[in-house]
Amino acid sequence: AFDLSKEPTAVRERYGMTRFGQCCLLARRLIEAGVRFVQVSHSYKWDQHSELEKLHTKNAAEVDLPIAGC
What is the pTM of this model? Predict the structure, then answer.
């Protein structure tokens, strides 16, 4: 399950080649392998106190493709 190179290139690209995208793909593979509980965390940078629109837009862009790939 941990060898993401076994996934076709198109699937890996669908999740994106970012660290978070690879984590989402790995989570899917672990679930398919029978793991009963999997948690994927993006980061703790969602707690903004300034520049809310700018920084949340950046965070959302980082998670959009990998989450859609699931």
Answer: 0.76
